[in-house]
Amino acid sequence: MSAQDRDTRVILPGATLGVLGGGQLGRMFAQTAQAMGYFTAVLDKDETSPAGLVSHHHIRSGYEDPQGLAELARLCAAVTTEFENVPAGSLNRLAESLPVSPAGSAVAIAQDRAAEKAHFVKCSVPCAPYAVIETPGQLAAVNDVLLPGIVKTARMGYDGKGQVRVTTREELNTAWEQLGRVPCVLEKMLPLALECSVIVARGRDGTIVNLPVQRNLHRDGILAVTEVYAGNLPATQVEKAIAAARSVAIGLDYVGVLCVEFFVLTDGMLVVNEIAPRPHNSGHYSQNACDVSQFELQVRCMTNLPLTQPRQHSPSIMLNLLGDLWFKNSSEARSPAWDQVLALPGCALHLYGKHDAKRARKMGHLNITGATPEAVRATALKAAAILGIEPF
Ligand code: ATP
Ligand code: MG
């Protein structure tokens, strides 16, 4: 069979699907694949990884271990990733023997903020003004218009980690030192009115579908609340965000689920922030509010099953459940009052099976659906009050 034939054939339930990474995204992928009748294999060296705990197979190895990768290839009919920092080389290596989506080349771009921004420019999708800082010369040459700004490490940042906000050149110099003089980008600090994201799924045949635009509230650099219903964003931004997300995916010749994050500025301009080559925290509401979830889209993409345009059937709000909530009333971790929360209508609890609650750790999320935006907001605010989440 040619690689082309191999990659385009439909992989039916009964086959084993593999995922690189054992976090919560891998867990929800595995659970969804299993619900559809697939077997699953997770590669993650953590014995107690959320996905490893629920998967038929758990290969306990690092992402670059040749034996682990060979075992994954032997077990699986296709492989995907749930973690954007899986070395692109490992994806490429797997792709020699089985279909892999997304491709190493696309993941490599999403892994590197400088390459990612160059891609946005190539697709004519506006992003924040920025400079790449890899050398003392580039640091010295930074234009003052980028200040105040945010220095972000080009690689390995997440949940606001690897970022320093700077106002002056002195602070910029110190920040680059603090970050270990690794390759960085400096982004101009923009006046944000709101943040939003769009999840697209693209098949190998070029079919592309999207979830509705998600409005996201971040607190301390971590997603806190996602609201998805008609009117959550001005209509012009909705259309622009969907069109931009689609062109970013098409420009990458992307196969799989891709999240594109945006800023809407105070003057109404839409600016792309970054992409994630996988399902995204802001897409979790789709599990309970849409006829196809982002994880089912991931399964359909990697198996060449048809992609139908998802339909959201209920207004929805997602509340992230960070470990902080376990410490609201005591210094020792205590489970929040799930019984009280689940007494509210339309609440679906998703917990990731993480044993230790830690501050800022994503322990789970609560999806809330309702008949109207007003109803879902009222319920979400009640749930937030019970859990000790600040109102929004
Ligand atoms: P994650 O992986 O959780 O999405 P991250 O660590 O990759 O986060 P970013 O998305 O780059 O970080 O930034 C985190 C948050 O910081 C953004 O959601 C936004 O609230 C704020 N932020 C980032 N860049 C800018 C900017 N140029 N201007 C204003 N605010 C910004
Ligand atoms: Mg982000």
TrEMBL record:
Keywords: ATP-binding, Ligase, Nucleotide-binding, Purine biosynthesis. One of its GO terms (biological process) is 'de novo' IMP biosynthetic process. It is an enzyme of class 6 (ligase). SUPFAM superfamilies: Glutathione synthetase ATP-binding domain-like, PreATP-grasp domain, Rudiment single hybrid motif. The keyword Nucleotide-binding applies. The keyword Transcription does not apply. It comes from the Bacteria. Gene3D superfamilies: 3.40.50.20, ATP-grasp fold, A domain, ATP-grasp fold, B domain. It catalyses: 5-amino-1-(5-phospho-beta-D-ribosyl)imidazole + hydrogencarbonate + ATP = 5-carboxyamino-1-(5-phospho-D-ribosyl)imidazole + ADP + phosphate + 2 H(+). GO terms for molecular function: 5-(carboxyamino)imidazole ribonucleotide synthase activity; ATP binding; metal ion binding; phosphoribosylaminoimidazole carboxylase activity. Residues 117-303 form the ATP-grasp domain. GO terms for cellular component: cytosol. Pathway: Purine metabolism; IMP biosynthesis via de novo pathway; 5-amino-1-(5-phospho-D-ribosyl)imidazole-4-carboxylate from 5-amino-1-(5-phospho-D-ribosyl)imidazole (N5-CAIR route): step 1/2. Its EC number is 6.3.4.18. Belongs to the PurK/PurT family. NCBIfam families: PRK06019.1-3, PRK06019.1-5, purK. Homodimer. Catalyzes the ATP-dependent conversion of 5-aminoimidazole ribonucleotide (AIR) and HCO(3)- to N5-carboxyaminoimidazole ribonucleotide (N5-CAIR). Catalyzes the ATP-dependent conversion of 5-aminoimidazole ribonucleotide (AIR) and HCO(3)(-) to N5-carboxyaminoimidazole ribonucleotide (N5-CAIR). This is N5-carboxyaminoimidazole ribonucleotide synthase. It comes from Diaphorobacter aerolatus. The gene is purK.
